[in-house]
Amino acid sequence: VLGDEALAWVRQCNAKSVAALFGNEDPQQSRLYGRFLDILESKAKIPYIGRVLNGLLYNFWQDDRQVRGVWRRCTIDEYRKPAPAWETVLDIDALNAAEGEPWV
Predict the structure, then answer these.
(1) How many C-beta atoms surround the C-beta of residue 96 within 10 A?
(2) Quick one: which of 42, 44, 47 has its CA closest to 80?
(3) Global model pTM greater than 0.85
(4) C-alpha–C-alpha distance, residues 3 and 10, integer Å
């Protein structure tokens, strides 16, 4: 992943994307760049459902409090609520603290 050939390929792909999105304009001075950055840094996120098992919806969540992440689940009815009450399945940050290991 960090080899010269792989990094050269990434730089080439990035250059194509920047050219397609911004043309000759400096991306960091572009309104579009600012909008992209606002979206990526937004705290308003929709929980992605990665798995449905036995009627429960599973989600892996990361934010400022859950830096390493937490696997959690809830029912479909709970998920439809504005602020679902998630059941924690595995709190990786807590596991790291308890075992003194950086698991992720």
Answers:
(1) 15
(2) 47
(3) no
(4) 11
Distance CA 40, CA 31 (A): 14
C-beta atoms surrounding 79 within 10 Å: 16
Mean pLDDT score across all residues of the chain: 91
Residue type, position 43, single letter: K
pLDDT tens profile 37-68: 898 888 888 888 989 999 999 999 998 888 99
For residues 19-58, b (16+ Cβ closer than 10 Å) or e, as one string?
eeeeeeeeeeeeeebeeeeeeeeeeeeeeeeeeeeeebbb
